[in-house]
Amino acid sequence: MMVDDEYLKDTAEIPDPTVELIHKFNAEQYKWIVKNAVETMLHGREKEIIQKRYLNDHPQTLKSIGEDLGISKERVRQIERESMAALMRYFEKHYPWLSGEIRGENL
């Protein structure tokens, strides 16, 4: 039986529910791991900045976080960078496969 290219093109676009479920599970798992790392590794302003920038339904700007904390947006950026480096070290130690995902190495 010969299959034409149009048929293959049409069937390739049909979403596989198993693949979608795995992607959804992975996304939820990643969120849990990141939130847990933030809660475990970061404290005070570091935790607040990362939560407001990345774990919020409405991410805030460096400027608005700086105004909330009474510091400059440049200082917020510095704290954010230091906090992200600490989180990456945590991921590399405890979840090496995830640190590769974050860097785009396993995509």
Low-confidence stretches: none
* Name of the CATH homologous superfamily of the domain at 38-107: Winged helix-like DNA-binding domain superfamily/Winged helix DNA-binding domain
| Strand proportion | under 5%
What count of helical segments does DSSP give?
6
Instruction: Return the structural class.
Output: mainly alpha
User: Can you give the helix content as a percent range?
Assistant: over 70%
What is the CATH topology of the domain at 38-107?
Arc Repressor Mutant, subunit A
Termini, distance in Å?
Answer: 35 Å
Give the CATH architecture of the domain at 38-107: Orthogonal Bundle
| Main beta-sheet annotation | none
Q: List the secondary-structure elements in sequence, H or E.
A: HHHHHH
Broad CATH class of the domain at 38-107: Mainly Alpha
Average per-residue pLDDT, rounded, comes to 83
Please give the radius of gyration in angstroms. 20 Å
Beta-strand segment tally: 0
- The best one-word shape is globular
What are its keywords?
0% strand, single chain, globular, 77% helix, Arc Repressor Mutant, subunit A, mainly alpha, 107 residues
Structure, described:
The structure is a single chain. The chain is mainly α. The chain has a domain at 38-107: Winged helix-like DNA-binding domain superfamily/Winged helix DNA-binding domain (Arc Repressor Mutant, subunit A), CATH 1.10.10. 77% of the residues lie in helices and 0% in strands. It is globular. The two termini are 35 Å apart.
Topology:
Layout: H1 5-12, H2 17-41, H3 44-54, H4 62-69, H5 73-94, H6 96-103
Helix pairs in contact: 2-5, 3-5, 4-5, 5-6
